[in-house]
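Q: Here's a chain of 232 amino acids. Please give me its 3D structure as tokens.
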Amino acid sequence: MEAIHLHNFVGCRKHSIRPMIITVDITPTTIAVNSFGLLSADVMVSFPLLQPDSKPGLQCLLWARERALGRTCAADFNRINLRRDTRWVESQLLNFENEVEKLFRAFAAKHGLRIELKEQNDLELLMTIPLQEGLSFELNLGLQNGDEINIGFKDFWSYIFPYPSVKSHVETLLDGIVTGDTRLVTKSQFGRTVSRTLEYLEGDDWAIGYKQISGLKVPFIKSRMEYFSNES
């Protein structure tokens, strides 16, 4: 099944709906569920002319866009309650903010670290664990686009999604950052960075936790490797 990524859902910020990244299969059911948090039963009412196994992806996306803009569209013949749906989406995202903040605070408390909430307008949530005993660098933690978890330090910034599916993975990476079981591997060629990879120890081997491509890697040319981890 073809998958599509929607980044900064059309019209979201302009129309006071928080932007989301959603990865969905092109079916009426998954489009509606991922876009609006509707139940499958609601979907069959909202999309009365379509079957769950059909692939009218573009039409579904257009309908989703129209609903995000607060307009009545073909999907609303039997179900028009845009204001309620928008409030539901907002409340779900707010719940994610609260949950993620609790996740970050629990992580800091577990390792005896001081954590600070940052007031800003760019992300749904931004918290900082400053350099202190137990952590040899500043660590930034965030939530953006509704369900993306951000881990940031030393020119590295992640977009790990979708939350809450990635919660356990994020906890593993964060714990490893403090214990030394998570490290940042930076590859460079000719003095420029081509990738940054957050690796975590899985048994006796290093596994990829998140990879950030920064530039084009020239084949057959050996990359310079730089390793960075907590030294406290």
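Q: Can you summarize the key feature?
A: The first strand starts at residue 3 and ends at 6.
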